[in-house]
Please model this.
Amino acid sequence: MAEKGSARQEYGADSIDVLEPMEHVRKRPGMYVGGTDIRALHHLIYEVVDNAIDEALAGRCDQIVVTLHENNAVSVEDNGAGIPVDINKKANKSALEVVMTQIGSGAKFNDDAYKVSGGLHGVGVSAVNALSAELRAEVWRDGYLWQQIYQTGIPITPVEKVRPLESNEATGTRITLVPDFTIMEANEFNYATLLQRFREMAFVTRRVSITLRDERVQPLPKETTFYFEGGIRSFVIYLNRNRKALHEPIYAEREIEITPEGKKPFVISAEVAFQYTDSSTVTELSFANTINTPDGGSHLTGLRSAITSVINRYARKNNFLKDKDNNFSGNDTMEGLTAIISIKHPDPQFESQTKVKLMNPEVQGAVSQTVSEAFNEFLELNPSDAKRIIEKCMTSKRAREAARKARDLVRSGPSLLESSTLPGKLADCSSHGEDAEIYIVEGDSAGGSAKQGRDRHFQAILPLRGKILNTERARLDKILDNNEIKALVSALGTGISDDFKIENLRYGRVIIMTDADVDGSHIRTLLLTFFFRHMQPIIQNGNLYIAQPPIFRLKNGKVVEYVYGEPGKSETDILNTALKGHKNPDRVSIQRYKGLGEMNPDQLWETTMDPETRTLLQVTIDDAAEADRVFDMLMGSSVPPRRRFIQTHAKSVRNLDI
Model:
């Protein structure tokens, strides 16, 4: 009960706020576009492009152009039928205005206009409109160019005819928007991020041209167009271009009729392409109505179960597996596999508006049937390829059993993999959980400074000796035999591989802190490779960070300034820029930090570890397929792709020793 005389908040009918739908979008953007950060900013574009893709799926569009303009404006144009502009009888206003301003409106709630579509909630473009400082909708339709302008989702002009269409003008829609940065975080659209997304879309939506144009680049705009006849089969070949394939891609497309009890029958289209390589990594991509579902769902489950089942049946039938042998596990049959599954469903059920996971249970059976039929036929008709695939699974099985024995051996003695037994080199903190953090530092010298400079209540220090094993080229049994990795796994408390449990992570922030030199960059890359391949949920959960130590210390009299690195700038340019801020640059004393160990504990705390003053870079995965490709190229066993990358991107390449 409230104390007598204290302020008291009355709770009654007047306490209940009723927000208009567009106001609700602006109050709770996370519900509609996943947040307000850079990913949500790009999601605004994806929602509009998804509508254009839906026109392509309906057979009315084959060209989409996305243009990045100055001042953070972006336009999405398609040559589809154009959004209807005539009066909607239910709303008594133009259908264009209804679509752009009313949550829950659209032509995708029945199958008259769209048999399948990615935008299904009637939320996408109206939510984008609500989160735009200004949005202009232009429609080429019914013999005229039509237009309406909105600010923060509210129409400021009527739907009006601009002019008659020329004889050579096709129908279509163009949406031009400027994000509202009073809600969205200040950022710019990233060309490379959009490029990866649209390449993916073009593979999945074959025979549709998608162009990304950047007019911010002067004097000549940058432009890339994607068009693929081969669809996801071409996508698999693209993803495996730096790997040695064991066979030609296996491809299948089927339409499966589903008859739910007491409901109208409908058809699910399932398209799958997959290929085994000599790599030990797994690349899986799943799509529902062309929408990437990074968390998978029923379609990916169907693909995995079918592949494992078919391989086990074939191996038994052809005596690769004897009666006494255990079946291959899912891990055995997935290793080295690059697989893409794309389904089209008239009523897909996603986990959320951001469409990260497909939930329809009937999809699993449809995909499983499609994969089983195609894979069985391939193995029977290509016995030499089948043998290579089975041998790949055998190798994976033996490595998995060796890794299990290594884990069992470790567990039987003083365990370095169990969270209850911590490595001796770890300087732990007194509290654990969301507010605790662990610094993974390079070497004993840096570890000593970090241990003295830290806040012992919530900061733990784990120094690693030298460069850890390149886990891109090593199997799990070899990884478990590496002392530095065992110490890292033990300190985090999560286990690894089959034993990994994100809920056991002992720290809310895992921070990589290495020297600002070439060796430090290499160690950081090795650690990122390990986390990406063997502890990816730590990245997906937002727990992994990179510390940003200074590279210079400038002292002018009693004034001390720390200078940090900047992407794309040389140390000389960074230093010269910093010196320009001093009246007498010649009197400035310059110290280049070659390593963290050169910094006094108080300096390391002030610049790199103090939450009030430090800068941390959070590690995220915006495009899993591209991340997989880059790690495979830079850290894998194939030399030519890495050499080409270095020769392309290095300013000068001499005496390459890769």
Summary: The first helix runs from residue 21 to 27. The longest strand covers residues 266-276.
